[in-house]
Structures are given as C-alpha cells and as structure tokens.
Amino acid sequence: MRGYLIHIALLTLPILARTQVLDAEIESRLADLPGVTEKLQTFESFGVKEPGTQALENTGAWLYDYAAQLGYNVEFDSFQDPLSCWQRNVVVTIPGTSTSRFMVLGAHYDTKRGTGTNDNGSGVVALMNTLEVLPDYRPLYGIRVVFFSGEEQGFHGSKHYVDSVLSKESGNLLLMLNVDQIGGTAGAEGNDKIYCERDENNEPASNNQRSKLVTDTLAQLTRLYTTLEPVISGAYSSDYEPFEDAGEIITGLYQYAPYPQTHTASDSLQYLDSNSLNQAVRLVTAATMYFSGQKILNVSSNALVQLDLYPNPTTGSVFCQGLKNITSVDVFDLSGVLVTEKSVNNGVFHVSDLPKGIYVVAVSVDHKLFHARLVVQ
C-alpha cells in the first residue's frame, strides 16, 4: 500500500543473529520455486481487485480452491467494510504439534487502480509457494496463512481478523509476518536488498523490543537462505498495523528498490525483477519454517538442574555461579519460546536490552540442563 519511501538506516545484526545456522530441512524445501511466474500471470489475469468487483471475488475463490486442493484446512473469513461491501479473507491452517502458540503469515490480495501484480500479487504468490512446499510439514507451532482483503482501503480485512478472531485467542499469537510487495523492479538499483520491517510505534511500546528481536532474526535468515542483503526499517502502512496496535509481535518484508508503478494500471509482470522476487519467495518459506519450529525449553526433562544467577532480579549484568567455561546461555520466555542467546564472558552476561519481565535462562553442560528463572527489572 506504500505511496512513498520511508527513511531508514542500515543496522548491524544484534543478539539473535548469532543463533541461526543453516537448517538442512529448510534448505531442502527451497530447492524449487513451483510456478511463480505462472501464478503471477493468473493473479494478473483476474483484473482490478477492488471492493465489490467480480475480480476480487474470483481471486479469493482461486486462493481458496488452491489451498483446498493441496489438502489444507481452508475457510473464508467474511466481513463488511465501512462502505457496506462484503469481502473475504482466506484463512489456511497448518496445525502444530504444540497447541499453545501459532504464527500468522499474511499478505493482501486486493488491489488499487490496477491488477496489482507486484502490490500485492508478489506477496500472494510467496504465500502460495509456502503452502505448496509444506503440505507434509508438521511445525512445532501452528501456522495460519491469511490472504487478507480490504488492505488498500485501510486494512479492513486484517482489522476484522484481529478484532473478531484474534481477540478470542489472547496471548496465543507468536508473531505476525507480513509480506507486501516483494517483486523487485526490473532494471532498478536495489534489487539485491530487501527491507526487513519492525515495530517502531510507541502506541503501545510494549511490543517493540520483541519485534526488534524477531526482525533481527528475519534479517539473518535473509543472509542464510537468499542472496539478498537485509535492510532494517520501520513497519509502515500494511496489514501488520492492526496486529501491532493490538500489542502483538510483528515483522514484515517489503522490496528495497523503488517501484513507480504502485497503485497504477502499469503494475504488471513486465516491471518485476525475477531474481529479486524468487529470492524473496524463498525467504518467506524459510522464515515461516524457522519461526514455526523455534527451539523450545523442555521443562519436564529429568535432567534439569538449578542454575544459580545473581543479582536476581537484575537490571543489566548477570553472573552464572558454579559453572565454568560457559560461553553462552539461552533465554526463553515463560511459554518456553527461545527469545535470544546471550554470550557469556567470565561468567557474566547482559540483559539490559530485554523488556522487563520473567524469563528462563538455560544452559546444557555435560548432558545436564541447568536452568533458572530470571527477573529483568
């Protein structure tokens, strides 16, 4: 939905970046990009997908049928927009082995003034590709792939989803990954980069730090699984905003190269950069697999041994007592999800960058799992 470029700064990768290594299962799923161009051509052929048009209805039905034919549980999530037009989100559910959390992978399929091949056919195709290569995938956490409608008129589909669906499942959302306009621009500079977007809005500010950690991870995944260079930027004007406003953790992808054809009749396949698009499509699948299969803490293990930390509570530095030669510790939230890995020097690690709250610190030594709760003030 972007009407103009926002000023950003290229940042270095902080704490989460050092925790990822190339995952063979993820890499194996990225070997093929089935039918990216063909899917974009079909998306384009439906025409201008504005509220109340048959083109929008046909596109939603196409997405529904596509997911259903792959064997997924898929449903329409209908809503009435402020102009009394009925629209439909298309929601595809991939169950996880744990029912405690799920992530949302979202992209809007409505368009403005044109067929929207880049904005946002590119994001739609990235989600379709993820579905196509994951029919037998059983993630740790559930995945909800949501094709939103009503984005171009003010995020009506995602607002409805947050207000009417997500509000009934408070605390269960792991994160929302938004994909909006990732096609690159033919012949433009910047097709070797991609924006990784994070929450910088202070209304509320409580979700900002976790969004930064997640986005730093997304940036590192970009380097691991694509030839693109990640550029950190603030989240702006897309379907993650209702999630962000509700206090949820968000991150997103958006192309770096300028695209003059946005919201015009010229937004078509001929203006996209195929390599940039293909790399971004790979990234969406890799990120979805990574975030839905994060490392968790098995607190029921018989090998648990108490870890002594002080000061506890703390506002910054923490000392690990009784364990020598520790080089790093894992920090989990209370639901068992890995938040970050911290380097340990001379028994000391630092947590001043973490939001206030209660965490579980864990380290494995000689096949024993040492752990302790840590309060950050």
Would you spell out the secondary-structure blueprint of this structure?
Blueprint: H1 24-29, H2 36-45, H3 54-69, E1 73-80, E2 86-94, E3 98-108, H4 121-133, E4 141-148, H5 156-165, E5 173-179, E6 193-198, H6 208-225, E7 229-234, H7 241-245, E8 250-255, H8 274-292, E9 304-306, E10 308-310, E11 317-321, E12 328-332, E13 338-343, E14 348-350, E15 357-365, E16 368-376
Parallel strand pairs: 3-4, 3-5, 5-8, 6-7, 9-16
Antiparallel strand pairs: 1-2, 2-4, 6-8, 10-11, 11-14, 12-13, 12-15, 15-16
Give the gist of this structure.
The protein is α/β, with parallel strands linked by helices and 377 residues long.
CATH C-level class of the largest domain is Alpha Beta
Reported CATH architecture of the largest domain: 3-Layer(aba) Sandwich
Taken together, the total number of domains comes to: 2
Number of strands: 16
Q: What's the CATH H-level homologous superfamily of the largest domain?
A: Zn peptidases
CA-based shape:
elongated
Strand portion = 25-35%
User: Main sheet: which strands, in order across?
Assistant: 1-2-4-3-5-8-6-7
Element-level helix/strand string: HHHEEEHEHEEHEHEHEEEEEEEE
Count of helical segments? 8
Cα distance spanning the termini = 39 Å
The CATH topology of the largest domain is Aminopeptidase
- Secondary-structure content class: alpha/beta
Please tell me how large the radius of gyration is.
21 Å
Main sheet makeup: 8 strands, mixed
Task: Report the helical percentage.
Answer: 25-40%
Oligomeric form: single chain
Poorly predicted residue ranges: 3-19, 299-303
For the residues shown, what is the average pLDDT? 89
